[in-house]
Fold this protein.
Amino acid sequence: MNRENKIGSYHFVAEPFHVDFNGELTMGVLGNHLLNCAGFHATERGFGIATLNEENYTWVLSRLAIELDEMPCQYEDFSIQTWVENVYRLFTDRNFAIVDKEGRKIGYARSVWAMISLNTRKPADLLTLHEGSIMDYVCDEPCPIEKPSRIKVAAKEPQAVLTAKYSDIDINGHVNSIRYIEHILDLFPIELYREKRIRRFEMAYVAEGYYGDKLSFFCDEASEDEYHIEVRKNGEEVLCRSKVIFADK
Amino acid sequence: MNRENKIGSYHFVAEPFHVDFNGELTMGVLGNHLLNCAGFHATERGFGIATLNEENYTWVLSRLAIELDEMPCQYEDFSIQTWVENVYRLFTDRNFAIVDKEGRKIGYARSVWAMISLNTRKPADLLTLHEGSIMDYVCDEPCPIEKPSRIKVAAKEPQAVLTAKYSDIDINGHVNSIRYIEHILDLFPIELYREKRIRRFEMAYVAEGYYGDKLSFFCDEASEDEYHIEVRKNGEEVLCRSKVIFADK
C-alpha cells in the first residue's frame, strides 16, 4: 500500500467562536478536530466506530498528547494529517501533524486508543480486528514529539469543583473528552494566556464521569511553566489526568 | 440580481462531540453554525466583518431566535441557508433555514444585527454602507417563525452564578455569544432533555460580559414548557435575556 493511502489529510478553518481572546484556536477545538480526523481516517479505511458498533465494539481514547510551535489564528486555513503508527494487541498509536496554510508543520499529536466490547466493556484484541487488516495502514511517518508520559498529582485540596451539567455530556452519557480539556484550561488565570502559550498538552483518560458527578480538579505546579492536574469524581475515583506545559510567547 | 445569489447555502455534518446525550446537535453548536453562515454570506458579498474592520466598523449580534421541528443527529448531513430579509437604518434582519439531508426544512432562525463604529462604539447607518449595496441582497424568501419577542424576567434570586473563565472569552475580550447559550441550557436538569426537545430558543444580547465577571442567571417559569432567563453581571447590569420553549418529543 502506498504512503498516500496511509495518511489522511483534512482541511479546517479557525472559526471566530473557536478562537480564544488571543485570536488563536483553542486547545479544546483542536482536540475535537484531532478526534474527528481519527474518526474520518478510520471510517474511510473500514475500521471506524460505526463499523465497529455493528460488531458490538467501539474505540476508546486512552491518551492524547499535543505539542505545538504555534496555533492557527482566526480565519486561518490549516490541515491535520493523521496515520496509524503502531498496532499492539490491546492498544493502537495514532499520530497527527498540524499543518499551517503554507504547508509548514506547526505541531504534532500522539494518541493511544483501545477497542472495547460494548457487551463486556473489556478490551478486544486489535491484532484480530478484520483479520489484522488495520496493520496494513501502519505508517512510519515521523512524529517528533515525546510519547504521553506518566502523570502523578500530589495536591490534597482541589483547586476547583464543578458539577457535570447537560452540556458536558456526550451521546454515551459520559462527560465528553473535550469538555475536560476546557475545564482544565479554565483552572489558569487569563493573564497566564496573555504572556504564555501552551507548548505541550497531555490528557490521560482513566474512567468515565456522568451527569451530576462532582468533578474536583487537583493541580500541582510541577516546575515553572509545568502543571499536573488530576480530575476526580465525588472526591475519589480518578477520571483523568493532564499535563500542561507553557512556554513564553 | 437573481434569487440564487441572494441566498447562501452551507453544508455541515453533526460531529460526535457536537451532539448531546440524545445524539442531537446542541443548540450552542447550531448557533455557532448560524453565526458562521452569516459571516460567510456577508463576506462573499463584500460586507463581512474583515471588510468592515478595515473601515473601522463591525457587526454586532442583537437578537437570535431559532425554531425547530427536529435537530440533526450525530453524523447526519445538513445545510443552512441564509439571506437578508430587511435593512433598516440601524438594524438588519438576517434569516436562516435549517435543511436536513433529504432537503426538508426542519427549522428556521431569525437574527437582528447592528453595525457599530469601532472608534465610537455607536451604531452606524446601514443605508449608507457601501452606498447602500447591502440592499441589493434583500430577499423575500419566507421565514415562517415569529420575530424575536420582548423578554421580561421577574425572578429576584439567581438560579445559578458562575464566574466568566478563559474558555468563555472571545477574541474581542467579551463573553462569547455561544457560551451564554450553553450556560443557559445548563440551568435545566438533564431529565427535561430526555422527555422534551427545545422547540424555540431566543437570545437578546444587551451588553458585554468580561473575564472574571460574576454571571447570575435569573429564571422565570413563564408557563408550562416556557422559561425566561436573564443573565446579569455582578448582580446588576443585564447582559442578555433568553426564552426557551420546550415541546414533547
